[in-house]
Design goal:
The complex is a heterodimer of chains A (435) and B (294). Chain A folds into two domains: 139 residues, D-Maltodextrin-Binding Protein, domain 2 (3-Layer(aba) Sandwich), CATH 3.40.190; 219 residues, Periplasmic binding protein-like II (D-Maltodextrin-Binding Protein, domain 2), CATH 3.40.190. Chain A contains 18 helices and eleven strands. The longest helix of chain A has 20 residues. Chain A is globular and about 70 Å long. Chain A starts with a helix and ends with a helix. With 294 residues, chain B is mostly helical. Chain B has one domain: MetI-like fold (Orthogonal Bundle), CATH 1.10.3720. Chain B has a two-stranded antiparallel sheet with strand order 1-2. In chain B, helix 2 crosses helix 13 and helix 7 packs across helix 11. Chain B is globular. The chains are: A alpha+beta (435), B mainly alpha (294). Chains A and B meet through helix 1, helix 3, helix 10 and helix 17 of A and helix 1, helix 5, helix 11 and helix 12 of B. Chain B: Its main location: membrane. Chain B: InterPro entries: ABC_transporter_permease, MetI-like, MetI-like_sf. Chain B: It is found in: Cell membrane.
């Protein structure tokens, strides 16, 4: 009896081991058979509004297409790239993946990182996209993804705070500067007309420089296009903003810990009068505000130079996993997601203003093209600058931008030193990224 | 058959564990060593580049800063945590009313472990408008920029780990309970004070446990990741940018797996050296009462 028990134990252990090591059987069985259930995974990042609406569309699609099961994988922006990286490399990525535009440059240098959507043109109506947009997601003739939309950085303001201060919302930098002492006097010394975190501050200096010079930050030769003197002037400008109390210092901001702007108490309580934010993300800033505070869309501040300098880029991209088992099914769902009137009506502008023409038509006919995102997007298009290099947002560069602003903000570097360092380091990193 | 089975039966029982350690520990361990001599961006095959990663590493000011910060963090956290754990254990060893309740209460923070949630809580507590500053303001003190000041930020992180002193405390407590009561009685008769009893009797007798706790805490502190990642993001001015954070950024954000591996191996060697030094020093200060040297 004892012996049997022992043998049983061994057999069980072995059985456990083998099942654990065996390759996973596709639970769906025969892939060619249409009557069998198709199971797709769709991953994205975003805020609550986007999550809820996307889940609703998935539910609708499953109702309309019995036999297709879509698993949603979603979360916030922080740490998303790391998650997707591990998944793509470990070959466990979802079938349909929402990616950031610059990830194409990182994951698909030769164009083979994602499924070539040109080969799925029977299922996705590519005619709904402007050619110049598709060109931005095409590598080596392979269409790596569908651009979700164009997003830009916009000046948004907390209307209540400005009202309490009794100052009209500014149209020029001079007016913004003039508001600072009024804020301090009427509302308190921890009130600021505008908030810039490290990255926001860096983008603000670029906004300043593009308006002044008409040049983008990174030129066609993949080098910093500004001279050291120009960068120094922009950094000085930022320091002036801090000194004048227009925006909290980096040290004051860091005191809240490592939190996104929309989650800092200063923003939530309305102590920051405005923020420089992506039009596609502004809704979460509105939602995080306490009480009945309202955000309004501001004008692009002028008074520096004659050139339009709004920063815009392909906001996000939908890609299909190159190893997906069901490319056609994935493409069908993707097409539904980006162009179907029912889906569009649900999604609204939760991912910004769509690039898909059919979706825009739906939104226009349903009178859904309104609100902060749309207003911001319209303003961006009227003031659009030179655009950005695909390497601009690479993580290592972003880390550098933040670091240099921090060193500037804490007084470790002068504006001149920071300018020199920026040119040297950014050029070095750009060269590394391009190889 | 039965004979063969008898012989390897034990092996079979531990196979699940063996496979686990080979797949999840040994394999990555060796792979990372090999990778540390390559340039590997995850997308294309690793390229052998010799010692280049290590050379880049030692030349990098970021690395030197991160190493310095890591060192400072360990130097602050470990002694503070051990001293605190011993202090509380010593108090809890007295026969006071409700001691069991206090033992549980003091152990609670450690159950929460290095979790993400506790780090977020810490971030809120020590934020400029957080509870700690509100409390300080209540007492009439100026509020302190715990996370915004490059000098204080690392202390704030240390404090989180010091606060979680429960597990070394429990071990200390067990050791304290093992000290025979008769020694104290004898000392008391000879007129020894409480302080000299602590330093002459208690401390020498628990040195083996101090030794054990020291090594465990040392290794843990060198590997700290969650707290700086969540609370400060390595800032301000990289004053909390510990080596594990740098390893993570390079490996998973910049796709420099080779460089990340080199950094990991450096960290491993540093921990090894410190552990070895501690072991070497053992004979000078650790007393085993059951050993042959009495």
């Amino acid at each position: 009896m004892k012996k049997i028990a022992k043998i049983m134990a061994i057999v069980l252990t072995l059985a456990l081991l083998f099942t654990a090591c065996a390759p996973k059987n596709p639970s769906t069985g025969n892939t060619g058979d249409q009557s069998k259930e198709v199971s797709l995974r769709f991953s994205w990042w975003g805020g609550d509004e986007r999550h809820e609406k996307t889940l609703e569309v998935i539910k609708l699609y499953e109702e309309l297409n019995p036999g297709v099961k879509i698993t949603a994988e979603y979360g916030g922006w922080q740490g998303h790239l790391e998650k997707i990286t591990t998944q793509i490399l470990g070959n466990t990525a979802a079938d349909i993946i929402q990616i950031n535009w610059n990830w194409i440059a990182a994951f698909s240098k030769d164009g083979s990182g994602f499924y070539d959507l040109n080969t799925l043109a029977d299922y996705i109506d590519l005619g709904n996209y402007e050619d110049h947009l598709l060109a931005q997601t095409t590598v080596n003739g392979k269409l790596n993804g569908l651009p979700v939309g164009i997003a830009g950085k916009v000046f948004y303001y907390n209307a209540n705070t400005w009202e309490k201060a009794g100052v009209p919302i500014p149209k020029t930098f001079d007016e913004l500067f003039a508001a600072a002492p009024v804020f301090k006097e009427k509302l308190g010394k921890d009130y600021y007309p505008f908030d810039l975190d490290q990255y926001g501050a860096f983008l603000m200096t670029l906004y300043y420089l593009e308006q002044k010079t008409g040049k983008p930050f990174i030129g066609d030769d993949n080098q910093v296009a500004y001279t050291a003197a120009e960068l120094e002037e922009a950094y000085e400008f930022y320091l002036k903003m801090v000194e004048a109390g227009v925006t909290p210092s980096i040290e004051a901001r860091a005191a809240a810990g490592n939190v996104p702007v929309d989650q800092t108490p200063g923003w939530i309580q309305g102590k920051y009068g405005g923020t420089y934010e992506w039009d596609s993300a502004i809704n979460k800033f509105q939602q995080s505000l306490e009480g009945d505070q309202k955000i309004v869309t501001g004008e692009f501040l002028t008074g520096i130079g004659s050139h339009p300098s709004a920063l815009a880029k392909v906001s996000m991209v939908y890609g299909i996993n190159k190893n997906t088992k069901y490319p056609e099914e994935a493409a069908k769902f993707l097409n539904f997601l980006v162009s179907d009137p029912r889906a569009t009506e649900i999604l609204g502008t939760s991912r910004g203003i769509p690039a898909n023409k059919a979706a825009v038509e739906t939104l226009v006919s349903k009178d859904q093209l309104k609100g902060l995102t749309f207003e911001g997007n319209t303003k961006v298009n009227e003031f659009i600058g030179q655009g950005i290099s695909p390497y601009f947002e690479a993580d290592e560069l972003q880390q550098f931008y933040r670091a240099v602003i921090e060193e500037l903000g804490y007084g470790k570097l002068t504006a001149a030193q920071a300018a020199e360092k920026t040119i040297k380091e950014v050029n070095r990193l750009l060269k590394e990224k391009a190889n | 058959m039965t004979k063969l089975l008898k012989k390897y039966e034990g092996m079979l029982y531990i196979t699940p564990w063996l496979i686990g350690i080979i797949v999840f520990t040994a394999f990555p361990f060796i792979t990372s060593f090999v990778l540390s001599f390559t340039n590997y961006n995850l997308m294309s095959a690793p390229k052998f580049i010799g010692l280049q990663n290590y050379i880049t590493m030692f030349r990098s000011p970021d690395f030197r800063k991160a190493f310095g910060v890591t060192f400072r963090y360990v130097a602050i956290t470990v002694p503070l945590k051990l001293a605190f754990a011993l202090f509380i254990a010593y108090i809890l060893n007295f026969k006071i009313k409700g001691v069991n309740f206090f033992r549980t209460a003091y152990y609670l923070p450690s159950i929460l472990g290095g979790s993400v949630a506790i780090s977020i809580l810490w971030r809120f507590l020590f934020a400029d408008t957080g509870l700690i500053n509100i409390f300080l303001g209540f007492l009439g003190f100026q509020s302190i920029s715990w996370l915004g000041n490059p000098t204080y930020a690392i202390f704030t992180l240390s404090l989180l780990r010091v606060w979680q002193f429960g597990s070394p405390m429990v071990i200390f407590l067990a050791a304290l309970k093992n000290i025979p009561e008769s020694l104290y009685e004898a000392a008391k008769i000879d007129g020894a004070s409480k302080v000299s009893m602590f330093f002459k009797i208690t401390l020498p007798l628990i040195t083996p446990v101090v030794f054990f706790n020291f090594i465990m805490q040392l290794i843990q502190a060198f590997q700290e990741f969650n707290a700086p990642y969540i609370i400060t993001g390595g800032g301000p001015l990289k004053s909390t940018y510990l080596l594990p954070l740098m390893i993570y950024d390079n490996s998973f954000k910049y796709f420099k797996m080779g460089y990340g591996s080199a950094l990991s191996w450096f960290l491993f060697v540093v921990i090894m050296i410190f552990t070895a030094i501690t072991f070497r020093s053992e004979k000078y200060w650790v007393h085993y009462s059951d050993g042959g040297d009495e």
